[in-house]
Amino acid sequence: MKKSISKKKKLNKFLPILVLAILLFFIFLAVLAVQTTKNFTSKAESYTCPSTSTQNYDHLHVVSDYPRAGNVEQNTEINLSTRGYTEVNEKTDLVDYGGDTDPVMPPSLGTMFSHTPVIVKTYKVYKAGTKVIEERWPVNLIGIATSPGENIVAPKAGREIGGGNVLMLIYATQTQATLVHGLGEHPSDGYFIHLDNFCVDPNLLTSYNSDNAGGRTVMPVLKPGQVIGYGNGSDIRIAIRDSGDWMDPRARKDWWQQSSAISGQGSYTPVPVSSATPVPATPAPTSFPPSPTRVISQPSPSPKPTIASPKITIYEIKITATPVPTLIPTPTPTKVPVMKIVKIKWLGFKLLLENFLKLYLP
After folding, report:
1. Residue 350 phi/psi, 5° resolution?
2. Which spans does this entry mark as compositional bias, Pro residues (predicted)?
3. Which residues, 6+ apart, have CB-to-CB distance to 234 below 8 Å?
């Protein structure tokens, strides 16, 4: 009985420590479950790309000394999706490179927005037909935070391509566009601008599809400030190329003249933009028929059965010490028969068994 009480005291002593250890373990699991590793915490609100637009676009003839693009869907120089890209952990600030600068201002990326752009992500583009990244520059594509529905417009540039226009659209889907600061489809025809993860203006997309189906002799063009599309609440991805090379879009002296950008440091909360193009909504009816009255009867809960507490019976074990007989060792003969050895071992085992039974059985 004393041993049983002693065990209970020991258990009561270590029980709080055990409970505390279990509690700390579950707290650790809870913290681990809610931990996030997202680099970009923009509220990518549920935004549906608009299906109508009031925008109008001019068209210009395609003029180039280089071969035509052919099937643009499969063209790795025009369709960014045929290459793909991957996110990299590089600075989200503008960077300063040495070297020459185009004396006539190239497209200024910051003028595509009505606010100071916030760079929140950096990417590397894959080489055509591989999963090997372009190596010349540490970044080939940047992600700029957008608010749902904000206008993304054609940038300012030092040159025009005709009629006051600065860009020709040579490829488009609902969420992607490739534009050239020139009149051709070849990377050497002018600066290429690749845009991804945004909503292309529906009228611009319709114009492109029509020109593409008509043989691509003319293509849509845009003036500075004319709408290309709309932000979707996430980051719009922008790449710019010079003579086919995938440049670093963060280069201040090349792509941010007359504009600037700030680092988002991986976090940005978009705000609603009043100039957003609304998605046409289905008009609500002026009145609704009355709904029938529904009566839901909830059955009373059944009484819980009474469960008797189990009885715990504690048995007291009396332990009586039995003296172990003293064995007088006898000289071991030189040769002992096998049967005698077995008999001696059996007697020893029998003696131990008898003592065990006397000690632990009542």
Report:
1. -65, -40
2. 280-292
3. 40, 42, 44, 145, 146, 197
Structure tokens at 244: 């086919």
Q: Are 57 and 207 in contact (CB under 8 A)?
A: yes
* Regions of the chain short of the pLDDT cut 70: 1-19, 21, 23-45, 265-362
Report the distance separating Cα 277 and Cα 347, nearest Å. 101
- The pLDDT tens digits for 194-234 are 999 999 999 999 999 999 999 999 999 999 999 999 999 99
Give the start-to-end residue ranges of the domains of the chain. Answer: 58-263
CATH tag for 58-263 (out of 2.70.70, 2.60.40, 2.40.10, 1.10.3470):
2.70.70
Coil, helix or strand for 97? Answer: coil
Whether the pTM exceeds 0.90: the reply is no
Q: List the structure tokens of 267.
A: 């976090």
Instruction: Let me know: does 322 contact 355? Beta carbons within 8 Å.
Output: yes
